[in-house]
């Protein structure tokens, strides 16, 4: 049995191919730049070339890609974005426009000059991963499942804090199903408010296996509980410390007993 797992962070995407025929330590691994860092670099290249940019695709992780787009606008250069791509930077498209980014329809985007650098936004590129592994003689045509983790603050309403919206979602989910695996969804069951998770599903072309998506922080904490040094303890406190977000869970016999969601700095 082979399962492709991908953890998409701010700086890197960490890819692990589980193969039941191999010892866990011998599974194939790739640590490569995150999609948002790849977009960041391409926009920076366009800035150096004094070239306008068109962003298409779906919602993906922001951070570096947004900073590069803002720098591009400050340099006096145009950034166009289709609505779904623009929501990478803010769920409120008016807020995106206030950043100086020109939101255009898909039809309008198709009419823009060829001289504009076109960049497709997506967190998960299965075909690129498959091509990379194929270069080393590893095929992904017999997968039992694919699991992808991304950080998703959810589709918060205008004038409502993304951080508070995420906290409310975590709280509601734990009260409904008090287990960390409740933050994992089969591709057909992603809640409508989890727009980044849904975007992963929408862009998973080429995947011919069941797809599961999950928030990165609960996924990391759930994985840590399989450590034999933790598994035997009745109560434990496990924290996922990311580049921009920290999420800690206190776990006990009844499940999740408490959690803290913070933004470092």
Brief sketch in words of this structure:
It contains 10 helices and 13 strands. It is an alpha/beta fold.
Itemize the secondary structure elements and their pairings.
Layout: E1 2-8, E2 12-19, E3 28-33, H1 35-49, E4 53-57, H2 64-74, E5 79-81, H3 83-86, H4 93-98, E6 102-103, H5 106-110, E7 117-121, H6 126-134, E8 145-150, H7 162-176, E9 184-186, H8 195-202, E10 211-215, H9 216-224, H10 228-231, E11 236-241, E12 246-252, E13 255-262
List its traits.
265 residues, alpha/beta, 6-stranded mixed beta sheet, 4-stranded parallel beta sheet, 10 helices, 13 strands, 27% strand
The number of distinct β-strands equals 13
SS-based class: alpha/beta
Could you list the spans in which at least 5 consecutive residues all have pLDDT below 50?
A: none
Task: State Rg.
Answer: 20 Å
> How is the main sheet built?
6 strands, mixed
SSE topology string:
EEEHEHEHHEHEHEHEHEHHEEE
Q: Please state how the strands of the largest beta sheet are arranged side by side.
A: 3-2-1-8-10-9
Principal-axis shape equals globular
- Distinct helical segment count: 10
Average residue pLDDT: 92
Strand content: 25-35%
Oligomer: single chain
Summarize the amount of helix as a percent range.
25-40%
Question: Whole-Å distance between the termini?
Answer: 42 Å
């Amino acid at each position: 049995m082979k399962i492709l797992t991908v953890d998409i962070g701010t700086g890197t995407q960490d890819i692990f191919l589980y193969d039941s025929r191999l010892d866990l330590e011998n599974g194939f691994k790739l640590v490569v730049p995150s999609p948002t860092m790849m977009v960041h670099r391409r926009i920076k290249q366009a800035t150096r070339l004094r070239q306008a940019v068109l962003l298409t695709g779906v919602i993906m992780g922001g951070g570096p890609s947004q900073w590069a787009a803002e720098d591009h606008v400050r340099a006096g250069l145009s950034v166009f974005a289709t609505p779904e791509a623009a929501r990478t930077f803010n769920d409120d498209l008016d807020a995106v426009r206030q950043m100086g980014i020109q939101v255009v329809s898909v039809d309008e985007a198709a009419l823009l000059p060829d001289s504009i650098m076109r960049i497709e936004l997506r967190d998960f590129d299965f075909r690129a991963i498959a091509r990379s592994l194929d270069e080393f003689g590893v095929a992904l045509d017999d997968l039992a499942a694919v699991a992808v983790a991304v950080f998703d603050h959810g589709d918060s309403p205008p004038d409502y804090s993304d951080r508070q919206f995420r906290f409310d979602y975590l709280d509601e989910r734990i009260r409904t199903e008090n287990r960390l695996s409740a933050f994992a969804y089969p591709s057909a069951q992603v809640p409508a408010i989890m727009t980044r998770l849904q975007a992963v599903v929408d862009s998973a072309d080429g995947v011919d296996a069941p797809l599961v998506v999950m928030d990165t922080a609960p996924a990391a904490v759930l994985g840590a509980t399989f450590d034999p040094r933790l598994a035997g303890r009745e109560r434990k406190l496990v924290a996922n410390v990311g580049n921009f977000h920290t999420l800690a869970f206190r776990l006990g016999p009844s499940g999740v007993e408490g959690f803290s969601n913070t933004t470092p700095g």
